Amino acid sequence: MQATIKADRGLFSYPKYWAHCYGSAPFLPMSRAEMDELGWDSCDIVLVTGDAYVDHPSFGMAIIGRLLEAHGFRVGIIAQPDWQNKNDFMKLGKPNLYFGVTAGNMDSMINRYTADKKLRHDDAYTPNNEGGKRPDRAVTVYSQRCREAYKDVPIILGGIEASLRRIAHYDYWSEKVRRSVLFDAKADLLMFGNAERPLVEVTHRLAAGEAIGDITDVRGTAIIVKQPLPEWQGVDSTSLDRPGKIDPIPNPYVMEPDCEGENENKASEPGEEAKAQPIVVQPAERRKPWEQVYVKLPAFEVVRDNKTLYAHANRILHQETNPGCARALLQRHGDRHIWINPPAMPLETEEMDAVFDLPYQRVPHPVYGKAKIPAYDMIRFSVNIMRGCFGGCTFCSITEHEGRIIQSRSEDSIIREIEQIRDTVPGFTGVISDLGGPTANMYRLRCKSARAEATCRRPSCVYPSICAHMDTDHKPTIDLYRRARDLPGIKKILIASGVRYDLAIEDPKYIKELAKHHVGGYLKIAPEHTEEGPLSKMMKPGMGTYYRFKELFDKYSKEAGKEQYLIPYFIASHPGTTDEDMLALAIWLKENRFKLDQVQNFYPSPMATATTLYHTEVNSLRKVKKDSETVPSAKGEIHRRLHKALLRYHDPKNFAQIRKALIKMGREDLIGRGPQHLVPPESGNEKRQRAAQPRRGERAMTKHTGFKNAASPRGNYGGRKPKGKSVSK
């Protein structure tokens, strides 16, 4: 499908920098010795990353480095430096153009801490899975060390950690609203999203001698300014979406999109009719109402202290994510402002192909020897076929980072990569572990209306129902699967990315193809919950859609003569979830004989809509009024632990906590040993263990004296193991 939102200039249309004469490096250098072997006296750009350097297109630094190399620049990489001082940041010398800083493929806080804020002791992006190789808030720390190393070298932030912190945001770990990361990192410029297009433009402009402080107009970038940029017209965010009465998102399908919010849904109130308007023939060169317009958001100091205005600002930000009609954003922080330009235009198919066709070695840098890097082992036989997601799930950050518009590679480019894996990657056995991306079955699915795609401000194209303009034809995906599995030397093509099942049921032929050829016994899908309360705050479809998909999946699996199972993913403690909702989900799990081995509590990632619901406890998905719906959110370790325990109702370690909650909810009928019961009654061993536990005062004395109560038996908790098929998450 031809793209309807296009950039003014192609990604590879720039003349190459003079250093292209050095050609491409086997690996981007990580030491001065490697630079000497390449004949380099210096690096033009030095990339600093919190991940180990794996030269593979699933690792952001490899893509960025190889892309800049293709434009003729000499790029060095400092991977997982010692951040205690500036020494490691100087080992490649002073870069000629800038430092590019990222925390890596994951946010450093999410990488280092669990959803319960417990320290992790492993890191999948580090050799031998070793934890502690990156600092908390890595972007900020790395940037400060770069500044200490070379004060006059520009610093550009990128990657998902910087992208999700480009504005004032609620920080789950400190439980407060923090200012834009640009201020804390003291960097010169921030690039958000998949930043190939702004990166190439900024780099060439710096190479041409332009000062970093003069580069203010590049889409997909954020900068610090003293005042709004000249020649831009400002509009206050409250005129678009009033706090106290937040208006619906404008209808994207009207003939003239009204982005100033003056005529939004005026006939939507009961008894009110739309007034007839005269038809006015507009001049051909009329400027679109969002061009050269910025939205003034409530200041950092305001959203820090006012939850309603925080929700309002976050709502506006999510409305301004479509590259076709997004306006710039301005937010004051003290005596300065953060200026966020509209998002970069998505890549064309030919540009995506060129990025993935760059000369990646597809293995870790030789400096790591035989050390295992788990993240690489997981993806080394997989192929990324697309970017972006139009699902709009409120808990997910993919849309905020990659955008709603699907950017797909060509079939030929994907096939070339599969052949390269087959022919060059060590250890390949003929099985491609995944053809996917953020979602397995959004390949080449885009809006069928050019006008709608260019002007739509809906947060989701599939909720509360699939938009009539959305293409749901899975034929391109089916054709890709068939061509890939027919390649010589390919034994199996598995699909490991999550399947968006509400889309899949629109094209049962896809489910048939999937069940017959591409499932290795289990298929991951994500209903996330069973109850309408949390599902409505997640913007996820109801269980009726799940049952329809399961019916088709089971039917086609049986026709193929295969015994295959769905593995549903669920989230505990999501905003909008009551204890009763979690109990209903636990009962559903038992009735359907699911025993989840690994469960996940909701993780409030920066800038996500669900994080706003968690922080404000106000339903910002609808009009916000004085009597707006309060969104229940499980906060605190005890409450969140209960929700997580209910997902693992079968674990004896959770019996006591669940029993206590059931009694409190008046559901003692679920305590017993029958098939209709959720947990067994308290056993004799449990009673003796509870009686032997010291009381609160005695526990404190035990801690100081070192004496232990020897009468506490280990026991087996007295519970019978529930019967039924064990299906793990």
Span of the ends, CA to CA: 35 Å
Number of helical regions: 25
Task: Please tally the β strands and state the result.
Answer: 21
Biggest β-sheet: strands ordered side by side in the sheet: 2-1-3-4-7-8-12-11-10-9
Over all CA atoms, what is the radius of gyration? Answer: 27 Å
Question: Uncertain spans, ≥5 residues at pLDDT below 50?
Answer: 245-274, 280-284, 699-729
Largest sheet: 10 strands, mixed
Which overall shape is indicated by the principal axes computed on the Cα atoms? Answer: globular
Structural classification? alpha/beta
GO molecular function, one term: iron ion binding
InterPro entries: Elp3/MiaA/NifB-like_rSAM (IPR006638), Methylthiotransferase_CS (IPR020612), rSAM (IPR007197), rSAM_horseshoe (IPR023404), rSAM_sf (IPR058240), UPF0313 (IPR022946), UPF0313_C (IPR024560), UPF0313_N (IPR013704)
Protein name: YgiQ family radical SAM protein
Keywords: 4Fe-4S, Iron, Iron-sulfur, Metal-binding, S-adenosyl-L-methionine
In short:
This protein has 729 residues and is of the alpha/beta class.
Q: Would you write up a description of this structure?
A:
Belongs to the UPF0313 family. The chain is of the alpha/beta class and 729 residues long. Helix content is 31%, strand content 11%. The chain has 25 helices and 21 strands. A hairpin with a 4-residue loop joins strand 5 (169-171) and strand 6 (176-178). The radius of gyration is 27 Å and the shape is globular. The model is unreliable at 245-274, 280-284 and 699-729 (pLDDT under 50).
